[in-house]
Structures are given as structure tokens and as C-alpha cells.
Task: inverse folding
């Protein structure tokens, strides 16, 4: 099943059976509103903290995915999830509600594909019939940890990104008709010495490049094998830097097929600076918009490369550069 | 491979090829000194922060495990690790040093067995030749997050535990002579409404009970199948509570075979209150002491049940009870 250095190839066609995609009020005004299942119209969701609202995103997305597939939660073997909050409390609280055996992950904004890679591996080898996996973020819970609390009203530079309030969850099952997971590449930690929490896209770009090149090398394919390669949340700066690197390395010549979830989710006139970010960014865009494009036939072969900055120098409070990672998963319509 | 509700049974004999076990000065005075490979004689390890010292624990343990097995790090497919620190920075920093594709976990003190379960599943199905997996904690880095910083000099109640400074890492490979991983049970989040960060053992006890009962039910065996069942870090209170529950449920009648890593690592006269804790507790005791007992023939069949409190109410700063989890892995000498 391992192929090359760091890629799993799946032969038994683990399939995305259904998804649940939930967003906040800012996402409701975004560019891909139709690809969400549910929106909340304020950031509190009736809870008394943003972390609890963050948990609700996950709980809703899981319920929606289960309902769509007509699967009961006691048929689900495992719930594989994570988020950006310290001690991933929203994920663990939602796992408590769900009451399904739980594998907690920390991959920052790369969590969606870290979870999808592991879930596919488990399903592919008969380790489960059904797995719920996903990622989520909540702007007000995450920004106060990774950047500055919104209430500070701090000026943001143009390189900064906007954390998505949203959860994307997928129900993975065995060999069905639909979007099938064909391979996954686990990334290395890449750290090019950047330390600016307001330019995480730039910091993460080399990790995306490293994983994309490893993926293509391991599988023995070229970028043109895919209709779309979509990074997680590099934003304008990171997408440009990573495209230029891939282009210089002779890997990518087609700017049009190289997308970034962080540039898909919001409208041009929304004040999101360099683009969207957060573990919920690649999760909602992949499990909502991109999968819908696959179902409509616009995309047949998709590589999603979720990128994560594994710490924020602001929250770490020590002089450190930002270790970054990217995990890639290929999804192909059967 | 899935058996029952939440247990993986491994048929291809993933094996612990070697281990690296590193501790701090307090562990050097403990009850199982001979089972460690290396000690540091202060808590700084020549670093300028406890978090960086925490990272060094991991790096040393990985190096030692690789050296013992005569395996180069570029032969290792994946590094699967986590810790208790926000954003699991020590694990991610050590992954940067190691430069091996990395899967970050958050399972609090259950991380060691979460990682061993996933590693065994991957190896068992041909997803890797070699995986490094482990868990670590550093008293001064962890206590300031999960309880109070040592510098506060706060009084601790008798139910409180002492966070281990240590890392235990295992190199897992395919079908070799030695301690083989035969099955793993992934736990559910269990929350009985406790909220005292100074009695985490009591909070975690019901999770240990739930996972042990699920494991035995899924495998269709009784507790007497094992020579030793060792929980991760319940301490005196949690071990007693969980034993009594298991005994009442008719699962366990033999008090002597029910051990707790948190009661093994230190001497009776060390001031550790209810016992040891921390992600490094089950990791060092399992990969050091318990495996040595297996090699010496004292234990042939071992079930390790690492337990985790998935948040500290102190660090969460919101009124919440403690969601807990336990993952169990069975290790048997070939």
C-alpha cells in the first residue's frame, strides 16, 4: 500500500458517502453559499462561548452527514477530528456528544486531509465500515489564539488571512459509487525560517510544494493527471509563492488548474485581506464546493493539499519560526 | 480487521523493534531507573525554555530507538506523535528535526497508545516498513498549562498527580521476533461530570473501565487472558475507582494483575501525591519497564490502557467538566 517514500495508494475504493458543511454569518455572504448545508446568523450559535459555538459546528456537520447517508451514529466505527484550539477542545466535546470511538488529531489547518488520509487507510484495510472525519474552525475562537482577539481591533496587514467559521465533515465508507479516495501523501514538517503570524500563507507555501512534489514522484504521475490541484489556505501570497516554486521546478505549467480553498470561499469584496484560512477552510471548500463540482462533472480528478502552520508565534510567546506541514489526498469520481 | 465495535486485530504481527526512553532528574531517582536509556540532571537540558527541553526528550528518544535497531531515519516512513502542550509544539519541533513524514496527534495522556494503535494498523496493512511513535511530557512545561506553574508554589491536594518528565518512543516494524502488537481498542470520550484538575485520575477511571470492557467484549476474551493490564496514569485514586468498577461488573477479580504506570515509575517516598501522570508516563513505563519485563519473561501478555483527560479546566478557563478517553493496545511476546 505504501508507494514511494510517503504515499498510500488505496485499492479498495474508500468513498465519500456524504458530507455536512456548516458555516457562520460571514460565510453566508460568501462566494459559495450554495455549497453549504447550514449557516448560523451570528457567531454565538446560542452558546455562551466561542469554543462551545465551535463545537456546535462540528456536531451539526456530523448530524447532517449522517442524515444525508441514512446512517445511524452507532453504525459509525470511528470519529477522526481535530481543530486549532488548544487541547482541541471543540473536537473532543463533539466526540463526547457523538459518543463514537474517537481519534484526536492535531494538524492545524492540514487537519482535514490528515483525517481523510487516515480514515481512507482504515476503511481501505477493513478497519471500519464507516468513519466520520473532518475539520472545523471558528473565527472568534481561533483568531484570539493564533493572531489577536477581534476585540483588540488591531490593524491587519495585507498579507494576513481571515479564519473561516465553518466545519466540513465527510462520512467515509467502503467501495461505493461517487467520489473515491485513491491515494494520500503524508507531509514532512518544513520550516523556511518565517516567523510572521500575519503571513502564514507565505510560511506554508514551501510545505505545499514539498508535499505536491513528493506526491507526484511517489505516484509516478505529472500534475496534469489532475483536473484541479487545490491547496488548503495559502491565500494570495502563499498561492503565488508556491505556484512560482512549482513552476520553476518544472512541476506545474498551468496556473488555471492550481486553486486555493482560501481564495474560493469568499467574495472579492469581502474584507479578508490575503484570503481565508483555518482548519475549516479546506474542509468546507473541499466537502462542499469541490465535491459538488465533482458531482456536476466539472472536476473528475482532484488533489487536495491541506496546509498547516503548526504553531502561531503569537500564541507560543517564544522566539520561534513556524513549522509547517501539508498533507495531500487524491479524490476521483468513480 | 475490525472486530466487534471498536477493536482492530492485527494478523501480520507488527513488532516493537526497539525503544528509546529518556527521563529527567526526578525520574532518575525513581523506582525503575534501570529501564531508562538516558537521564538529564536538570530540567532545562541546556535549552532556554521548558518547551524546547520537552522537544529534546523526543529527539533523544527517537535517536536512541533508531540507534538500537540500526535503522537510519530515512528508512522510517512516518513519525506519529503528540503531547499535552498547546498546539503540540514539542512534537512538531521534533518532527522538524527528524524530517520524517509526520502525523500529529492529540490524545493528552492517552497519546502513547493512540499512536501505537495507528502505527500498528499502518504497518499491519503494508502502509509502512518502519514507524517511530511515542509520547512525551515535561513536568515544568505541562504543569503550568494543566495545573499551576511550579513557581506559584501552590498547595497540592492528596488526589493530585505529578507530571512525568520523559519520553518513550518505539520503532515499529513488520513481523519480527519480539513484542508483537496483536490488537488495539480505540476509546470513546467518557465524561462523568468531574471538573477537578487535581483529581484527573478519578475523572479518567470510567474511561479506562469503558475501554477495557469494550476490548474484552470485542475480542471475546476475559481479563485473565492477560498477565498484566496496565492503565496509563490513573494514580492511587483512579486505579482504585476503576478496579472497584471492573470488579463490581464481574470483569476483574485479580487485584495483583491490575497495574498503573503512574504507580510504577516513582519510589514510595517521592512526593508525588496520588502518583505520576502525563503523556510521558505510560510511554516511558511501557516502552521501558513493561517491555523489559516481557523480554525477561515475567510478562507474556500485556494490555496497556493509556488514559487521557482531554482538557484541563484550569487551562480552558471556562466552566466545563473533563472529557476523558482511554485507548488500549495488547502486546504479546512471540
Result:
Amino acid at each position: 500500500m505504501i508507494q514511494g517514500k510517503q504515499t498510500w495508494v488505496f485499492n479498495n475504493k474508500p468513498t465519500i458517502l456524504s458530507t455536512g458543511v456548516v458555516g457562520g454569518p460571514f460565510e453566508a455572504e460568501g462566494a459559495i453559499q450554495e455549497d453549504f448545508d447550514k449557516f448560523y446568523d451570528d457567531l454565538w450559535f446560542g452558546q455562551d462561548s466561542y469554543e462551545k459555538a465551535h463545537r456546535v459546528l462540528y456536531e451539526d456537520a456530523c448530524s447532517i452527514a449522517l442524515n444525508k447517508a441514512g446512517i445511524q451514529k452507532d453504525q459509525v466505527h470511528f470519529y477522526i477530528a481535530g481543530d486549532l484550539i488548544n487541547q482541541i477542545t471543540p473536537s473532543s466535546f463533539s466526540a463526547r456528544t457523538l459518543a463514537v470511538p474517537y481519534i484526536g488529531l492535531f494538524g492545524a489547518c492540514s487537519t482535514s486531509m490528515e483525517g481523510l488520509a487516515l480514515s481512507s487507510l482504515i476503511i481501505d484495510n477493513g478497519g471500519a465500515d464507516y468513519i466520520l472525519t473532518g475539520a472545523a474552525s471558528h473565527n472568534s475562537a481561533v483568531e484570539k489564539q493564533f493572531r489577536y482577539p477581534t476585540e483588540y481591533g488591531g490593524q491587519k496587514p495585507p498579507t494576513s488571512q481571515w479564519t473561516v467559521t465553518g466545519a466540513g465533515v465527510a462520512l467515509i465508507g467502503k467501495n461505493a459509487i461517487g467520489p473515491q479516495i485513491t491515494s494520500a501523501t503524508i507531509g514532512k514538517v518544513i520550516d523556511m525560517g518565517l516567523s510572521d503570524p500575519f503571513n502564514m500563507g507565505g510560511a506554508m507555501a514551501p510545505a505545499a510544494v514539498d508535499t505536491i512534489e513528493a506526491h507526484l514522484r511517489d505516484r509516478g504521475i505529472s500534475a496534469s493527471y489532475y483536473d484541479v490541484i487545490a491547496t488548503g489556505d495559502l491565500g494570495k501570497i502563499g498561492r503565488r509563492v508556491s505556484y512560482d516554486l512549482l513552476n520553476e521546478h518544472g512541476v506545474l505549467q498551468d496556473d488555471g488548474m492550481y486553486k486555493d480553498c482560501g481564495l474560493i470561499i469568499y467574495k472579492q469584496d469581502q474584507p479578508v485581506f490575503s484570503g481565508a484560512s483555518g482548519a475549516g477552510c479546506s474542509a468546507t471548500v473541499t466537502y462542499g464546493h469541490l465535491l459538488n463540482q465533482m458531482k456536476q462533472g466539472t472536476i473528475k480528478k482532484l488533489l487536495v493539499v491541506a496546509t498547516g502552520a503548526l504553531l502561531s508565534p503569537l500564541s507560543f510567546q517564544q522566539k520561534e519560526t513556524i513549522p509547517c506541514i501539508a498533507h495531500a489526498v487524491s479524490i476521483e469520481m468513480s
